[in-house]
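Annex B, item 7. Sequence and structure tokens for protein A, then protein B.
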Amino acid sequence: MVGLYKLLLLLLLLLPAHWIAESKLNFIPNKIECENYMPTFLTNLACVLKSNDLNETVIDMDFIAVRELNNTSVSFSFNVMIGKSTVNYINKRFDICTRTGQDALEDHIITRVISEEIKKSGNILNDCPYKKNKHYYVHGFKVKEHSIPPYFPEMNLTITIDLVTNRRKTMRFLAFGRSVKVGKITSRIIP
């Protein structure tokens, strides 16, 4: 049996070329919600779906910290809808005020991609503790096509991000959307 596997591997390596299909995925949000649980901590919370200059759907979110917010963490949940059932793919809490918590955001491909794009498009993950009377925002948030690994399937998904301050849920952000293959499927020859 081992000889058969070696023979198949040798045949694959000796073939002059083979085609590998590549495709890119795009996250398309179709609904977002924000809820302020602690108006004494945050004001002017707003979430908006809009189109950017390239006619892509992007997310904007704004709020003002009413007071300095210490001991802040983010509870992150990523749910995938397959058929009629929902699978909780990730459910983690990150202490964003510590280096360990910031590093933990980098541990998983999903949280890494989302946190990198949030950092590029806003200041929400830049300050900790959150400063009193400061405007925090994410403008033009979009997960770039090259950021999503090609092995991810097309799917419907829900992203839930809870901002927790001193063990109190302060704010909830919900994004509903789907990942879809975009552009043409290209092929390349591997010698």
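Protein B:
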Amino acid sequence: MRIPKSAPFALVMALPRTAPSYAGYVATPIFMINWLAKRSYTRMIFLLGFLAVGAVVNIAMGLSFSFTSWALELALFLPFMAAVLGFVPSRHFNGRSFIKILNVLVLITSLISLTQHGFPFRLPYIHFLPDFYNGGYGNGGAKIVTVIGFFGVAEALSRKRALNVRDNATLIISGLNFLMPNFILGIVAGAAALVIFVRKNRAVMFAGAAVAMVVVPYLQYRAEVKNDAFQEYYGANPKLYAFVAVGKLYLDEPHTALVGAGAGQFSSQPAIWTSPINRYVSTHNLPKLPGMFSADVHEQHVAPMLVRFKNNKYAIESSANKPYSGISQLFAELGIPLTVLLLYSAYLLFWRSGQGDFGRAAFLFLIAINLLDPQIDSPWFGVMMFATLQAIMADRRVRAARVDEANRESGVFLPGPQAARPARA
């Protein structure tokens, strides 16, 4: 039996979250990229140059700056940047195969996690929280599983399938990964993105309606019991107030509107890992690296919103209550010009040039999920976006080859250059 070339990539990304496995998460995307391609290394040089300039400007303006957090954030968001900037995938990397294999592995590890809580004799949603359907990633792992499941569902819906279990196995597995975890924001964002498939496949609409009959009552229940302390105090939903915080950053430090506050400094994962709020509500083993500390911009603009609720952790513990998102993170840490460039590049690659619903669904999910939750520096979100990029690029090559073959079979040829006729005397 031949082992798919993408299997090793998927195996590493499916490892349980530990300090050593994070090294694998950030190293694996490096091998997915063809670094010898001019489009890859030139765009990486541009990105590094911009981030370096931003760091120098912030230091010159007298702001504290953690280069450890900067380097760590660069490693974490590299796969996302590779996807939206259009780096060339390695010839050993197959996006569709990677997405399918990772979904199977995550299903297996999630079921193993459930057995530790009495499954199948005790059931999630009934006897214990569905958060334990987490792929073995631990606390917060349900978010990762939902994201992986979404891309699996989109990949399956984007190709032709016969009406049998074998052809729809990936869709079933990915659907479980997408719906079973308790990541409401991911389910809502994913459902909004998957609507694009309804145009060509009415069965998706009926299947979605059936799922909604089960899921919507639970979503309503979660909305009713949601802690609204943040909104009551600040007078705005936390996800909207995230952009108010970015606006205040721009007013206090005008240069950040152009070059950002620096990767890893404001509300990205390294910034949150070093935040003062972790003294009160953290449930994770946080990394302790030399030179890693909470930067001034976080201390002044993000930490106060969080520490205010140090005695009411449920006000900020849920993903829906956190006053930051992926899009607000981009505007704060990278500035307006680069953020607009990245989002426009993603639009061109996944929507306009994708020429199919897979890329368009991925683009819609990119926007929707990152308005609700920070996924920019999630290695899993990044590699799934890059896998989607490879898949739509491969699909485009296949379509072009079929057109060429059809033209040859029909005898249609493009005229070649004709030799110039000699001028008459």
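Comment on protein B: The chain has a mean pLDDT of 87.
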